[in-house]
Amino acid sequence: MSLTISLKIPPFLNPRRKIPSCTIPLPEAIIMTSSSSTISGAAASSSSSSVDVETLRRNRVLSSKLYFDIPVTMVPLIYSSAYDIAFFGIEKLHPFDSSKWGRICQFLIKDGVLERSRIVEPLEASNDDLLVVHTESYLSSLKSSTKVAMIIEVPPVALLPNCIVQKKVLYPFRKQVGGTILAAKLAKERGWAINVGGGFHHCCADKGGGFCVYADISLCVKFAFTRLNISRVMIIDLDAHQGNGHEMDFGNDSRVSSNFSFKDINGAVHEFS
């Protein structure tokens, strides 16, 4: 089974902005000396350590609460009002529109395309969920407001107490991570799913940047491999910038194909399928 991850909400929903959001459609379509003994022993130890890390990662995925069942009356469109980042006008200091997610849903509701009561609200990704991909040192670094300010490219955030940064900035990002991860499950069950937020393609396991704090795409893929019986994934990134985050995380993983230009998509999908 294959899973396709396509980034960016259609531009007609917000034509003035580039929207690095995550859509997951149609998963079936596309997605002998003493010294040598010492070296051998070290290799065995390294191998054992690697196995332990993978076991821990797998256990974290299996124990996560981010996958949950939804009623048949709900549509596989995921959004929470907590997605929107807005406090004291500081969000206006970055060209990225951090309140667009709510306006997208308001547009769909006002246009009669969507009923508010049928929208799925995700859970917040926990620290254990994030550790499926991220390093402990990277997550710890986010306790520094200066570090967060550098990642989201809003310098005044460095002056705020970290408790405020956690609540007003990082919590919305963690909710969106939960949405991206859940979208893969719903796409497999329903044939399509959309997380209105997410798509933070500049973040990898140990580094964030470009307004991307958590690697929700990499997390989505890791969860899908473990819990959805997914064998291959194609990431189609339609943003103007390269998705360097997930590229770093899966650059050596033959199960994951990514970073196709628009003109290459048709051929890539044909070859992939």
From TrEMBL:
GO terms for molecular function: histone deacetylase activity. PANTHER family: HISTONE DEACETYLASE 11 (PTHR10625:SF23), HISTONE DEACETYLASE HDAC1-RELATED (PTHR10625). This is Histone deacetylase domain-containing protein. Transmembrane segments: none annotated. InterPro entries: HDACs, His_deacetylse_dom, His_deacetylse_dom_sf, Ureohydrolase_dom_sf. It comes from the Eukaryota. GO terms for cellular component: histone deacetylase complex. Its cofactor is Zn(2+). Residues 94-256 form the Histone deacetylase domain. GO terms for biological process: epigenetic regulation of gene expression.
